[in-house]
């Protein structure tokens, strides 16, 4: 009774305040023809230089809007031409020749040429460079300018990945004139130029008239940073925002689906969400224990419970939408009895206790609770330790001081991490390393897929980690907005094709 | 009066220095490396080392502390690790939201609370007093973010007369910026007003029992004049104390409200700074807040002395 009377009182008060300020309140969110787009993002990028940071938020603003690479990743995940209109590979697979687009200028008017390509790639792979994805350039021996429109990239070993690697946001082409100031004032060759950044609030970009390709249909776009899920919901439903491509409140998705003003797009990402295990710690050294844990977790219940049903089960560390995906979801079906049996065989009939360190994302915090309860049923007692992201990076990732953790590996095509020395799972398999080595020097597509499937099989057989689900991308936008990507094969919000349907 | 102010000032500077040391040490101790946060999972050791050198993280602790304090004394708050812009610039942008937000909420809560408190004290024990005070009690108990969600629901989603959040910027749209602050100001002010009204009422009740009130009435002053001239004025000291505390809370403690309305204020700057380990931003903003809080406390002290001449001699 109190609550009700209070509510009405508060409303009266608030209503009074609004009346006093009646002059200030006007019609909000008008429906005139639009050529601008306001787009919500959960995290604000730390800066805007895609070649100097790992934050996905950087790419979500600049990739393919402001900055472009020699190649690009298309909406379906395929490698497509961008600043390079075509490329040939020499017969020995050691030299890639890129033919560049003509008439390209940077946003500050500087013409683009092969020199810029050489500068950008050499800068990224140089000693002392702060590029977060330096391994992308590991195979490159030399970048040679043939003429202003042609560039050769010479390799130390044949690399089947080069065209794909150069499509990453971390490999975009920058101009020597503006490279140092790109963090705060990014200058690229893309269809949009940077306007202003109100820190903590929004970044604005607008159409670049000197763009070499087809002009985009949007005049202006703004990226607004809304980290609170309630606020994100309110901003979308009230029409303050036009789109939220990676929506942060899955529990409200159903409400948007029921509302004809909105379109809901559930797509895929490159985010393999795993329960990572420290393969050199205590009972986890034993493959049978790891297999038991894989059997003990009900993955579908996890997707339903922690992610409101959004997510695709995976059986290995690979994106299910990729043609080389090996469906191994049947390898460790949910079977607590089998799990107990395996644990007993391994000598842990009474179970054991361990810690589970959880970083802040919802999938980890919510998923962690469910996993702890699943594992309790087979006798494994998990102590949950919530950690901040920075703490996770140093304690779990760098020092590998953990037993279990949950994290989503969002980098595309990253199965190679299992071949790395001292990577945080502490997995060490010569069989796997051999497959990856062979993969790196294989150019033939069919052969590559075969090797990728083998690699997936090895890590799943070894139950290195528990492969939980592929993170879904749940986007919500105004039903009249067309051309946004439904899937997220790489972090980014390519706005070049976006337009309003009712114009 | 001047001597009083001088002594306060010395105490104030000592507090600031102590605070700077505590802030610095605490941030040195917490785990997490800014370079790791920025470069993520695929960073190579040489890349991390290069970035650490670039950020100036390799110097010894004592050197960094001294440089930081000396820099601040000269108005140089350092360069943000993540944003790569001067921290002073970031704080300058954020204060344009936090200051109006805090001031607005303080003014609104005062406007609501003082008359209600006075009214309630005057009709002490009557039904109206009991009624007002129980509403105030609930107002204290309800968190401001809940009020915020309710306000957004009513004014942004159902009525659509105000934006659900965001801040266009004063120079872009003064009108729009004012609009953007209405709901957050109301959400912040209501719980504060509830507290203030209760303090006003009880302070006034204490005063109304004093002998000089009877004297004032006896010499022929009207009820109303006695109440305002002799009652309210003497009851203001505890109210001022609470106002001082509330301002400090409002300027720094609004991070939840800022998040809900996605306003780029100081609270959110610090929050983001902590999660991204942009320690220089955290250090300098927290230092600024400490300075601001101390300054407000100083002002309140001075205001006491202005209201009550007896306090000037007591120091």
Automatic annotation (TrEMBL), chain A:
InterPro entries: Peptide/Ni-bd, SBP_5, SBP_5_dom
Annotated Solute-binding protein family domain residues: 79-409
GO cellular component, one term: outer membrane-bounded periplasmic space
Main location group: periplasm
Location of the protein in the cell: Periplasm
Keyword Cytoplasm: no
Superkingdom, natural source: Bacteria
The keyword Signal is annotated on this UniProt entry: yes
Gene Ontology BP annotations: peptide transport
Residue ranges the record marks as coiled coil: none
Signal peptide: 1-22
A GO term, aspect molecular function: peptide transmembrane transporter activity
This protein's UniProt keywords: Signal
Protein family per UniProt: Belongs to the bacterial solute-binding protein 5 family.
PANTHER family: D,D-DIPEPTIDE-BINDING PERIPLASMIC PROTEIN DDPA-RELATED, PERIPLASMIC BINDING COMPONENT OF ABC TRANSPORTER
UniProt-recorded name of the protein: Peptide/nickel transport system substrate-binding protein
TrEMBL record, chain B:
Family: Belongs to the binding-protein-dependent transport system permease family.
Domain ABC transmembrane type-1: 95-300
Transport as UniProt keyword: yes
CDD domains in UniProt: TM_PBP2
Keyword Secreted among UniProt keywords: no
InterPro entries from the UniProt entry: BPD_transp_1_N, MetI-like, MetI-like_sf
Any GO MF annotation of the entry: dipeptide transmembrane transporter activity
PROSITE patterns: ABC_TM1
Cell compartments where the protein resides: Cell membrane
Protein name: Peptide/nickel transport system permease protein
Keywords tagged on the record: Cell membrane, Membrane, Transmembrane, Transmembrane helix, Transport
Sequence intervals crossing the membrane: 97-119, 140-162, 174-191, 235-257, 286-307
Membrane topology of this protein: Multi-pass membrane protein
Record-linked Pfam families: BPD_transp_1 (PF00528), BPD_transp_1_N (PF19300)
Gene Ontology cellular-component terms listed: plasma membrane
